[in-house]
Specification:
Order of helices and strands of chain A: HHEEHHHHHHHHHHHHHHEEH
Shape of chain B: globular
Strand order of the largest sheet of chain A: 1-2
Structural class of chain B: alpha/beta
Helix content of chain A: 55-70%
Number of helices of chain A: 17
Strand content of chain B: 25-35%
Number of helices of chain B: 8
Distance between the termini of chain B: 34 Å
Number of domains of chain A: 2
Shape of chain A: elongated
Oligomer: heterodimer
Largest sheet of chain B: 6 strands, mixed
Strand order of the largest sheet of chain B: 6-7-8-3-9-10
CATH superfamily of the largest domain in chain B: P-loop containing nucleotide triphosphate hydrolases
Helix content of chain B: 25-40%
Largest interface: A-B, 27 and 35 residues
Radius of gyration of chain A: 26 Å
């Protein structure tokens, strides 16, 4: 055990002394922070005229618009989305009787300039649900959602439909409105990250085994007593530690700017506020944790792939290019049917994964994509690591 | 203590690098002379368990080359000595000591002792990439001695050493040879002629000379030139 600890420390040191890995990690961190930070794009001019003909006009910057949205959302956060809630929203869309708001843009201006309380729900209904906030009642709102869900469940078997009906029954209604403006941005960032992770894993781990050939230490290592299993385990653990640290680090860079700009609120919001057609009884907080966990597992699987290529090819460049090629291929090539849902480009597209009604039959029950995917990636990673061991055992010193 | 090699063969696709070599080596300096490409390095790699033979067996006091016990008493300095440029000399030795199964405290003591012995103590904490070629070679020698080997295999160990260091290294080997089987491969006659107790010569994968050696003999160069022409450097 002590030997393993010592070897692990030195293997980690070897990996951490790779300058290209640091350069790529810093670059990715910078890109992540840049993407995660709210843009300070050009402002817009808002103007609204009341019934007495008095006009208010103001230019609001991107930051001011976000602040207005957040302020309004916080004001009504915690209110149940019942008929009273929708009545207030309809009244707001009518300028509370003091303004004549004919167009959609008039309503938007009114929210920004006069009363921003219902700006969040207004945006949600208009842009996420494609409903008219000025006329929608609570009943219409929940009915529209049920119709979408029913349409999606159409092609499913009766057993599968019954499974989703049970799940839907667990979704608490009426929804409780909570501030969670950061959630869509989080999903967007995670999606971007998932496409960059294979590159990061490859750069960090491409040399974990193959560097022994590059620096001509293989003869020396294999003449030593602990060169097979203990050294292999030390290399593996060091590689997985790097993959884990890289994914957690990049996730932190992705989440922290959002927390700074939006605050850490809205974790209790029902997922359905943003994923309207989802029947998963999840809060936004749990959905976010699931996504983060999946991303970490994906990073570990990418790390395992990089290590496998490193030990199988004994060539650092090949181990670097392999995952990058795979990254390009998985974005370009589609897999048929259900399998496609487990590809990273689908899995980390939050909208798709949370709205997916695909089920995998498991003795006595069904499993959702979100339940199968972690197992799938963990098994895939473990399989790749087992192959690493086979290659390491058969490693022959260059003649 | 004896190293027994029987019918050792290494066949590559189109070449037999080592062809049915049988040997019996005991304590002392065993010189292995041969021109480049004679099969010395392949033979040594098989003796160290880093290359699998196509046929034949190797055992040290009855312990097979593939076992951990064999490697526990083996010291090896490969011809191409690789290192980790960002490690210090001390770290490199501690890393290899862990691989050889030494406890941390023993490894620290032994590493410091060997750095001293090889004249590297003053640069022990500096990164190896800043060292001269001769210093790196001496580090290679130090690592081979970490586990107090009973079988020491050194492949072209004097490459990169200056004349003074060569003499120092020869004396060190001669001392080790008292209770260790030392197999010293070289193509430089002067490296072995005055310290060897046993002489082996290899050509085209075969052992062509295998006999006890009198250190006072002066005809080794003549013998070598007869077998290999003008190939000595």
């Amino acid at each position: 055990m002590k030997t393993l600890r010592t070897l692990y420390r030195y293997e980690l040191r070897k990996l951490l002394s790779r300058r290209p890995a640091w350069i790529v990690a810093i670059l990715l961190a910078a890109i992540t922070i840049h993407t995660a930070l709210p843009s300070h794009g050009a402002g817009s001019t808002f103007s609204v005229t009341d019934r007495s003909g008095q006009t208010v006009e103001r230019v609001l910057s991107g930051a001011e618009q976000r602040a207005a949205l957040a302020e309004g959302e916080r004001r009504i956060s915690g209110q149940p989305m019942d008929e009273a809630f929708f009545r207030n929203l309809r009244a707001a869309c009518a300028g509370n009787g003091q303004y004549e708001l004919r167009e959609h843009w008039d309503q938007v201006c009114w929210f920004y300039l006069v009363d921003n309380s219902y700006l969040g729900p207004y945006s949600l209904l208009a842009y996420e649900w494609n409903l008219d906030p000025a006329t929608t009642t609570a009943e219409q709102f929940y009915q529209a959602r049920q119709e979408t869900i029913r349409a999606q469940m159409g092609p499913l078997s009766p057993d599968e439909q019954s499974f989703w009906t049970d799940m839907e029954a667990k979704v608490e209604k009426p929804f409780v409105y909570r501030y969670g403006g950061w959630y869509p941005e989080f999903l967007h960032n995670v999606y971007g990250l998932s496409s960059l992770l294979p590159l990061l894993a490859a750069v960090c781990l491409c040399g974990v085994f193959s560097d022994e050939r590059r620096v001509r230490t293989e003869s020396l290592l294999f003449s030593c007593r602990q060169s097979r299993l203990p050294l292999f385990l030390a290399k593996l653990l060091a590689g997985l530690t790097c993959a884990l640290a890289a994914s957690l680090g990049i996730l932190a860079f992705c989440v922290l700017p959002l927390v700074f700009s939006h605050g850490a609120e809205g974790f209790q919001a029902p997922l359905q506020l943003w994923e309207s057609a989802s029947s998963l009884p999840l809060t936004v907080g749990r959905a976010v944790l699931l996504m983060m966990g999946l991303l970490v597992l994906y990073a570990l699987a990418c790390g395992a792939l990089s290590m496998l290529l490193s030990v199988a090819t004994k060539n650092t460049l090949a181990a670097l290019l392999g995952p990058v090629l795979l990254m390009i291929l998985q974005a370009r090539l589609g897999l048929p049917g259900q399998a496609a849902e487990y590809l990273p480009n689908q899995l980390f597209n939050g909208t798709a994964v949370f709205r997916s009604f695909q089920l995998v039959s498991f003795p006595g029950t069904f499993l959702t994509v979100l339940q199968v995917a972690p197992v799938l990636y963990a098994v895939l990673g473990a399989g790749l690591l087992a192959l690493c061991w086979l290659c390491w055992r058969r490693w022959a010193v260059q003649g | 203590m004896e190293l027994i090699v029987r019918g050792l063969t290494k066949q590559y696709k189109d070449k037999t690098a080592v062809d049915g070599v049988s040997l019996r080596l005991t304590e002392g300096i065993n010189g292995l002379l041969g021109a480049n490409g004679a099969g010395k390095t392949t033979l040594m790699r098989m003796l160290c368990g880093v290359l699998k033979p196509t046929a034949g067996t190797i055992s040290l006091d009855g312990v097979d080359v593939s076992s951990e016990d064999y490697r526990a008493v083996l010291g090896y300095l490969p011809q191409e000595f690789g290192y980790y440029p960002d490690f210090s000399g001390m770290d490199f030795l501690l890393y290899l000591a862990a691989l050889k199964g030494l406890s941390r405290s023993h490894a620290k003591r032994k590493a410091a002792e060997l750095l001293e012995l090889t004249g590297l103590a003053h640069v022990g904490k500096k990164k190896i990439k800043t060292w001269s070629g001769g210093m790196k070679q001496r580090l290679g020698i130090a690592q081979a001695l970490l586990n107090d080997p009973r079988l020491l295999v050194v492949d072209e160990p004097t490459a990169g050493l200056d004349p003074k260091e060569r003499v120092r290294f020869r004396n060190l080997l001669a001392e080790l040879g008292r209770d260790t089987i030392v197999l010293l491969s070289t193509h430089i006659v002067s490296d072995v002629e005055h310290i060897a107790d046993h002489m082996l010569m290899m050509a085209d994968g075969h052992i062509i000379l295998d006999e006890p050696w009198d250190r006072n003999r002066t005809d080794l160069e003549e013998l070598y030139l007869k077998e290999f022409g003008g190939e000595e450097e």
